[in-house]
Amino acid sequence: MAKPILLRHEGTLSSLDHARVERRKLYGYRKRVALDPSGEPCTRAALTDDGALLIRAGMTAQGYFDEAGEWIPSKELVGLGADGEPLPLVPSSLGEERELEGPVPATQLLDHAITAVYALTPLSLDAALAESLRAGAVYRFAFNPRADYREDFAFLVSNPDGALFALAGQPVSPQWLTLAQASAAGADDDESDDDELDFEMF
């Protein structure tokens, strides 16, 4: 069992179990399978740019080749900042106490790119915090479900029925364009995000 999310608010500690909410769990899914001439499922693979290597699914998780063709295992890779300097590894926040910030304005949530939604099950929940959340308050806390080279954040929210959710993501700073500036080419409109959620479900 995964370690719980531990949140301290006004001196009281709350413990929450979590499970990631995924589109396929909400709506189900269909999968298109390519078959070879004998009717067996095909395995996806890709060629390197020079056509010398065939890369199968999962192989890139083990490591990478550098520009000199040397193999570098994933455990030796480090994160680099915009200045090219190594970044410190941020440990997982699960099982570690985190202080809740807030209540924060709901507009602060809109200034973040939300990448994951977690349904929370209270193991122990401060009554005052539960009442505040039910009334529509939004709280923010540092949240990293696994060790990473950046610190992510999550917002603790509740729906009118009292169900709790953590919306995890990163702050974003939009760059506005003027009429004199050209917009960068966007993604193909036909592409769809399999993880897109319908928030009306909550």
Notes on the structure:
The protein is mainly β and 202 residues long. The protein has a domain at 5-26 and 93-182. Helix content is 9%, strand content 30%. It has helices at residues 23-27, 106-110, 127-134; strands at 5-9, 12-20, 45-47, 54-56, 63-65, 71-73, 97-99, 112-124, 139-142, 153-158, 164-171. The strands form three sheets. A seven-stranded mixed beta sheet has the order 7-1-2-8-11-10-9. It has a two-stranded antiparallel sheet with strand order 3-4. Strand 5 and strand 6 (71-73) form a beta hairpin. The chain is extended and about 60 Å long. The chain starts with a strand and ends in a 31-residue tail after the last strand.
Question: Any descriptors?
Answer:
about 200 residues, mainly beta, seven-stranded mixed beta sheet, about 10% helix
Rg over CA atoms = 22 Å
Give, in spatial order, the strands making up the sheet with the most strands.
7-1-2-8-11-10-9
Order of helices and strands: EEHEEEEEHEHEEE
Main sheet attributes: strand count, strand direction, barrel closure:
7 strands, mixed
Oligomer: single chain
In whole angstroms, how far apart are the ends?
25 Å
Taken from the alpha-carbon principal axes, the silhouette is extended
The structural class is mainly beta
Uncertain stretches of 5 or more adjacent residues: none
Q: Mean pLDDT score, rounded?
A: 82
Report a brief summary of the structure.
The chain contains three helices and eleven strands. With 202 residues, the protein is mainly beta. A seven-stranded mixed β-sheet has the order 7-1-2-8-11-10-9. A two-stranded antiparallel sheet has the order 3-4. It has a two-stranded antiparallel sheet with strand order 5-6.
